[in-house]
Amino acid sequence: MMDSSKNKDASNSGGQDSSSDTTEDDKPELCPGFKDADAFVKYGLGAVLSATKASAGLPQAGDEFDFYRSFPGFQEFCESQGDKLLICMSQIMQHHGCRSHLRDRSKLTGLEERFDLVVDSNDVILERVGMLLDEADGVNRSQQPVMPAGFQPPKIVVSSWNRKGSSSGSRSETFKLLHAKNVARPQLKFKEKVDNSNTPFIPKIFIKPNAIKPLPSYFSNKQIRKERPEDLDVPAALADFIHQQRTREHVDDMFAHPYQFEIDHLTITDSLLLKPEPQMYKELSETKLTYIDTLEELVTLNEKLCKQNEFAVDLEHHSYRSFLGITCLMQISTREEDFIIDTLELRSEMYILNESFTDPAIVKVFHGADSDIEWLQRDFGLYIVNLFDTHQASRALNLARHSLDHLLKHYCNVDADKRYQLADWRIRPLPEEMVQYARSDTHYLLYIYDRMRAQLLDFNHGQLGLLQSVWNKSKDISLKKYIKPIYTEDSYLEVQRKQKKSYNTQQLAAFRLLFAWRDKLARQEDESTGYVLPTHMMNKISEELPKEPQGIIACCNPVPPLVRQQVNELHLLVQQAREMPLLKAEIAAQKKKGLTPVKKPEVTLFGPHDTSRVSESDIPQFLSHEMPVKQGTLFSEEMDLDIDVNKLRSLMAKPKITIFEEVVTKKAEDSLSGTQMKARRIIESFENPFRMYLPSDVHVNKNAKFDPNSKIFEISKRWKLQSIEQQQKELEAKKKAKEEARKVTEERKKAKKSYQESLQDVATVRQQAAESGKAVGKKRDRVPSEGGESTPKPTKKTKPPQPEAASADTFTPFDYSQSQLKVFSSGAKAKDSTQFDPYRQGHDSKKKFSKGPKSNPGAGNRSMSYMAAKSNRGFRHNWPKR
Ligand code: AMP
Ligand code: MN
Ligand code: ZN
After folding, report:
1. Is 335 exposed, middle or buried (0-12, 13-18, 19+ CB in 10 A)?
2. Ligand 3 geometric centre to CA of 420 (Å)
3. Cross-sheet strand order for the sheet of 156-158
4. Rounded to whole angstroms, how far apart are CA atoms 395 and 404?
5. Ligand 1 atom closest to Cα of 316?
6. Counting atoms of ligand 1 from 1, which one is nearest the CA of 438?
7. What angle do CA 782, 784, 790 make, to 5 degrees?
8. If you measure from the C-alpha of residue 166 to the centroid of ligand 2, how many angstroms do you get, rounded to a whole number?
9. How many A from CA of 866 to the centre of ligand 1?
10. What's the gap in Å between 423 CA and the centre of ligand 1?
11. pLDDT: which is higher, 53 or 512
12. What single DSSP character describes residue 608?
């Protein structure tokens, strides 16, 4: 950081004698004493360099410093210089509208917090630099997001609960949340209810066009897929057991990328590696725009897309009023036309686009597809085979910036107005301004795609390497799998750690309890965690541990609706946290030295799927957390969070557990019949089929905790099972390798055959669409047609032969009629389409999954409000450049 006051000296020492002599060149000075930016940078670098040198020359920490420090003169000098530096830094920070209490020793303790302040300020300043650079480049991000005037008044909530907008009105510290009031919840219209349960995501696909490897039976067989343990007509424990057995064999399929094989075996055709002649985009005003919100229109679009060599795709998304997020809009542009699909309306029908989206002969151009790929899978079961990501191309070309607006400016000289990016995309009917914005996200993309490919080849003197690398990177992105946020006992630690706040045991307990409450409620109500209770409010409550419910309200401004509604529950949680013992540092030290017997977390050695139907309410909530975690160590000097996390398992307060063990064991046993007990033991000896996809640790089986008999039984059984399993796995792996080659050819034949078979005697999607149109105005209640009027099938134009794909002459249009559209009609799915069941969710979310690398820890911490005028530099968020 530079002290701006030094600029004055600079005019003397900086070697710029232009201050009095500027009349000759008309250019005004950049700032006093500096002719232009170069001069300023040169001086700045010199100053930084000499400061660095000087600081390196200071007495080193340790003996040398201590020695010098023993001289009062040195000490005084240090202090005065230190103060001077702090004042200087404070001034700079103030100038930029940042908090600047660096010097105020009474208000802030600890070097760490001051350091945080500096880091924050640096972020803010760099952020501003980024924006200014953008502006200089012609991209204007400084405007506030607006809502279309005709529709609803611009409703910009400055969410002061997120971060205080500084009084100086500093833009960069003000978080804005574009928020339209009274938008109907689109979730209410979804035919298939959103699955917020705390279980891993299973692909939605049930029919696989363009397959080289057929879709595993788990997905194509509706029966297996839709079966749920709850629906079996046997005792619950047994039902789970049966269900596990059935799904067990499908586990590998259930979590694989359905198009992994096809993408792995995709070869980019030679024509795509040649230098293209860029095809100019059509003017927006001359381009037809189609808004698509019926199945019939969607089918027509799909037919059109199947005839293209390439098309561009983009999505708009909403994440504040939904737990997982909702894709609200899909934009598609061909060379000739623009399309906007209302994906809220067609959510359950979108899957038909897989025919063009997974066609290896058609290039799908996205900009920054990382999130799009996941959203497509999560909401529609859509996949992309043959992706070109212009964001990756921009990186490979080393462009100044990789955002879409930069590319638009650079290649098309179009000024994109990204203000709508964070608009509430759930609004219907979609205001014209938003339509225009959305459309421009894909309209120019194919031209940019041409230009970039040409440039990638030029850049590399005609060699393919760079272009090929972009194709490969894009391939990797299309292989991304959506991972659902999973709540684990440790999730809160990830979030808490990021707060960089040292909490005592009570505060930490409060944070943990609030975190669990928030996650549960967010899933139940299908709201984002940020909507339920923003993290910084959670912090405030944890820090203050209010004694009265009113105190909780006072921590929140504005008060989130669900907090107001459940303030009494929250108050109970805070009280519960207050009852935690505040352990002293010595105790922690003792524990570290191992003076306290360490309770081995043996229960975590086995983790069969928790299938018991022991009434959840019988088990005290947050049982495993009754005891303080990270005891005392919070007060210790050499705090090491990572170690603490491991330690906390061994720091469980034994006495309390025993009380519960006794009580609950009795209860549980009383309530179960002999057969049920037996069934339970059998069940518990099996593994959770999800386990391998879950974070590495095994989750704790509640029964085992409460039932010592079954515990012993389980342990021995488990070990046996594991070792046998291990051996079998190794054997299988060897076999597999041998068979691999043979299988590939076999599977391809099979896929072709099953695909051909699926085409016989079935109506086309178009027929179904026509049929559905007839259905008493209710386009959603579709009935599979029985030989309705036939509509011409799409004829595909000839394409360069694809090595892995079916050749052009054997091509038959894909047909969806076997796709059991009924799945989505309300009647056929009575059991499945039940409303979101908070109690079931509650049950699920209490299952104890432990965390691991893939557990998407950020999910719990999604802040739903965004920095205004974000320059996409990713200082805080890691959003891909769009
Ligand atoms: P885009 O590809 O730029 O049209 O963005 C697609 C969606 O991503 C938008 O509708 C937003 O929901 C979301 N999004 C894009 N950029 C950001 C950001 N910086 N912060 C939060 N959400 C974003
Ligand atoms: Mn996008
Ligand atoms: Zn977009």
Report:
1. middle
2. 9
3. 156-158, 175-178, 866-867
4. 12
5. 10
6. 4
7. 110
8. 31
9. 10
10. 9
11. 512
12. B
Which two structure tokens, joined as six digits, stand for 472? 């490969």
Q: What is the pLDDT of residues 618-648, one digit of tens each?
A: 333 333 333 333 333 233 333 333 434 344 4
Maximum Cα interatomic distance, the chain, rounded to a whole number of Å: 101
Q: Over the stretch 836-856, which tens digit does the pLDDT of each residue have?
A: 333 333 333 333 333 334 334
612 C-beta neighbours (distance < 10 Å), count:
24
* Atom number of ligand 1 nearest to Cα 329: 10
The predicted-structure confidence for 696-722, as pLDDT tens digits, reads as follows 333 333 443 333 343 333 433 443 344
Closest atom of ligand 1 to CA, residue 425? 10
Whether ligand 1 lies within 6 angstroms of the CB of 866 is answered as yes
The amino acid at residue 557 is N
Tokens of 392: 């990756």
Q: Is the CB of 815 under 6 A from ligand 1?
A: no
b (16+ CB within 10 A) / e for 653-691: eeeebeebeeebbeebeeebeeebbebbbbbbbbbbbbb
Query: How far from each other are the two terminal CA atoms of the chain, in whole angstroms?
Result: 30
Residue nearest to atom 15 of ligand 1 (CA): 421
β-pair partners for 331: 314, 340
Which tops the pLDDT comparison, 598 or 335? 335
Q: How far is the CA of 869 from the centre of ligand 3 (A)?
A: 16
Assign 474 a pLDDT band (cuts: 50, 70, 90): very high
What values do phi and psi take at 874, rounded to 5?
70, 30
Tell me the range of 162-166, 244-248, 271-275 where mean pLDDT is highest: 271-275
Ligand 1: residue whose CA is nearest its atom 10: 316
pLDDT in tens, 163-184: 223 333 333 322 333 456 678 9
Which residue, by CA, sits nearest to atom 13 of ligand 1? 317
505 neighbors 630 (Cβ within 8 angstroms): yes
532 half-sphere exposure, CB direction, 13 A CA radius:
24
CA of 313 to the centre of ligand 1 (A): 14
Query: Who's near 875: CB < 8 A, 6+ residues apart?
Result: 123, 126, 127
Strand partners, 157: 177
Which ligand is located closest to the Cα atom of residue 405? 1
User: What's the 52 CA to ligand 2 centre distance in angstroms?
Assistant: 43
Supply the residue whose CA is at minimum distance from atom 2 of ligand 1. Answer: 882
* 225 CB within 6 A, ligand 1: no
Task: Tell the residue nearest (CA) to atom 6 of ligand 1.
Answer: 316
Q: For a substitution probing ligand 1, which of 422, 442, 871 has the most ligand atoms within 8 Å of its CB?
A: 422
Is residue 690 lining ligand 1, measured as CB closer than 6 Å? no
Any atom of ligand 1 within 6 Å of the Cβ of 419: no
Query: Encoding tokens for residue 160?
Result: 């002061």
pTM (predicted TM-score)? 0.55
How far is Cα 390 from Cα 483, in angstroms, rounded to an integer?
A: 24
Which sign does the torsion angle of CA 254, 259, 262, 267 carry?
negative
Exposed/middle/buried for 388, CB within 10 Å: 0-12, 13-18, 19+?
buried
Mutation to probe ligand 1, out of 421, 866, 871 (largest number of atoms < 8 A from CB): 421
Q: How many whole angstroms from 364 Cα to the centroid of ligand 1? A: 19
Pocket flag, ligand 1, residue 814 (CB < 6 Å): no
Q: DSSP label at 857?
A: G
Mean pLDDT check: name the lowest of 231-245, 408-422, 480-494, 577-591. 577-591
State the pLDDT at residue 729: 66
Most confident of 13-27, 213-227, 441-455, 857-871: 441-455
Size of the chain in residues: 882
Q: What local confidence, expressed as pLDDT, does residue 112 receive?
A: 67
Rounded CA gap, 397 and 433, in Å?
32
Buried b (16+ CB within 10 A) or exposed e, 551-560: ebbebbeebb
CA atoms within 13 A on the CB side of 643: 11
